[in-house]
Write a structure and sequence with these properties.
single chain; about 80 residues; mainly beta; five-stranded antiparallel β-sheet; two-stranded antiparallel ribbon; 7 strands; about 0% helix
Length: about 80
Amino acid sequence: MPSWGVELVEREGLLFKKFTDIPFTGNVNTDTQKGFVKNGKREDYWNFFHSNTGQLSGKGIYKNGNFDGIWMFYWDN
């Protein structure tokens, strides 16, 4: 169920597609984040981007919606 640029909202620790009550599953690719969500939780490799510059702000792996392993974070410059 791919969903590029989908608008998600977070409720009770889970991600939902806006205006639904079913936890989201699919790809996310927006100006500020890129990754995969399974049953409302972030999974696998994710990239986050600064909204003011579009530059990479963080990257790492999620497991069952939690940070897993080493993450790298970057200043916006």
